[in-house]
Amino acid sequence: MVASIPQNHAYIRHLGPEDGTGPLRLADPTPEGVRSGEQRWWPPVMLGPDWVRAHDFDLAHLHFGFDARPPEELQDFVDALHATGRPLVFTVHDLRNPHHPTRALHDEQLEVLVRGADALVTLTRGAAAEIARRWGREAVVVPHPHVVDFRTMQVAADARARRRSGQFRVGLHVKSVRASMDPLAVLPVLAETVAGLPGAVLQVNVHAELHDPAGRSHDPVVAAAIDVAAAHRHVDLRVHDYLADDQAFYSYLNSLDVSVLPYRFGTHSGWLEACRDLGTTVVAPTCGFYAEQGPVLTYEMDEDRFDPASLRDAVTAAYDARPPFGATVPERRRQRAEIAAAHAEVYRSVTERV
């Protein structure tokens, strides 16, 4: 029995064998004040030491949800696990939290979790090397599994194969502009680049709460820059609320030829993996370890530097070559079996040691 934190997440659901024979994972407890029908796992109740002591399971596997937890509370969680004889497996998804404007809190959280975990997993060799350098610990490298279900992947592949050639759609989704994003840097370059590519369109998606002066996350500077770009006939502006569900998200990505990630910092990306599942080419920055997740086109951008020419070159290369950077269903199926076997070995090893 595994206490996955969380359990109801595409990444976690796809760690086990496709036939469902993997380890049993406890359902996410409903946080206080949240109706069970909403199926929300935030904030994760399993991170509480009282919950750990009151429930029966073999090991805890932490992925997400500790963003707002003080390091002292995370230490209480680790101590409760060890005091009750349960090991902790920690998958290090983020070495730099994309939602935190500075790295101090996340570094303190990692200090507790990386040092306190009985086994570490991460997604790329680059991340494993950074973990070894910073903490002197070895992390098992297991790739990110597919995000999109196999049936939707196949339907998307068939639809893309039938799509008429001609228009080339580049997508920039600024959402509500989380801390790691810098759309003001990339937007003018993308608008200029796409203007010079016959048949190309730049689709800019933005959440209504950022664009609307009365919105909760309104940013007048970003909204004004988006409006300036939208005045060009080759820019297609889409202002909307959060995408309603997974299928809306997948349909959006599948409609694009290219998705540009406008990140100054970060580590890994589930968005990138969803693009690969749906046959959408990713243009990713050189920060983090995005390029190690799978075939992508890169441009130079991090917290200290942005090279506009490299972004122009990446988009132009995607336009000229139309490379098949997506992952096929058979490839993802084979990878999922390997991922499931790797996690089973981590679980076996850690429970035997503890």
Question: What do you see in this structure?
Answer:
The two termini are 15 Å apart. The strands form two sheets. Strands 8-7-6-9-10-11 form a six-stranded parallel beta sheet, with helices on both faces. The chain has a five-stranded parallel beta sheet with strand order 1-2-3-4-5, sandwiched between helices. The protein has helices at 10-13, 49-54, 71-83, 104-116, 125-135, 150-162, 183-195, 208-211, 220-230, 246-254, 270-278, 290-293, 308-321, 329-353, and strands spanning 2-5, 59-62, 88-92, 119-122, 140-141, 168-175, 200-207, 235-240, 258-260, 281-285, 297-299. The longest helix has 25 residues, at 329-353. The chain folds into two domains: 2-145 and 334-353, Rossmann fold; 150-321, Glycogen Phosphorylase B (Rossmann fold), CATH 3.40.50.2000. Helix content is 42%, strand content 15%. The radius of gyration is 21 Å and the shape is globular. It is of the alpha/beta class. It contains 14 helices and eleven strands.
List keywords for this structure.
Rossmann fold; globular; 6-stranded parallel beta sheet; 354 residues; single chain; 5-stranded parallel beta sheet; 2 domains; 14 helices; alpha/beta
